[in-house]
Amino acid sequence: MNVSIEKKKAEAISRMKALGIFEQTIEQFDKLGKISISEPPAGAFFWIDGEDLKRVREFEQQFNTLVYAVIRTYTKAGTLDSYLFVSDYPEEWQDERRLLKEGEVTAYVYNRDLPFCSDMGYIGIALTVAAILIRTW
After folding, report:
1. Torsion sign over Cα 93, 10, 122, 63
2. How confident is the model over 50-96, as pLDDT tens digits?
3. Bridge partners for 107 per DSSP
4. What is the dihedral of CA 110, 113, 72, 55, to 10 degrees?
5. Per-residue DSSP letters for 40-81?
6. Could you tell me how far CA 30 lies from the centroid of its own chain?
């Protein structure tokens, strides 16, 4: 299936709003195509660039997705970048929206230290009082 980028973008913006992401961050994604990364401990979103952006674009191309946010987490298993994305399967979007409201999301998790340990799956997420996304599990 090939869902248009416009439909995926509209779905991504809807999810970003549901998550409570700062309006300017959503606008930068919408108007400029900027993907933001939430990285502790700074407590803010930053635009991804360089090798990080290259990896995201390769993921999008390989799986025909649209990444709308990245959450960086520091763990004993390595530094993890969780890609929040809209898939090419609109029949799954309603369930994904429901899970999102419960603090769960399908993500591709790239392990920066051990790339061979990267994988797709469900993760827990939350928005902090500082309005940044964090991974909860």
Report:
1. positive
2. 999 999 999 999 999 999 999 999 999 999 999 999 999 999 999 99
3. 84, 121
4. -50
5. TTTTEEEE--HHHHHHHHHHHHHHT-EEEEEEEEEETTEEEE
6. 14
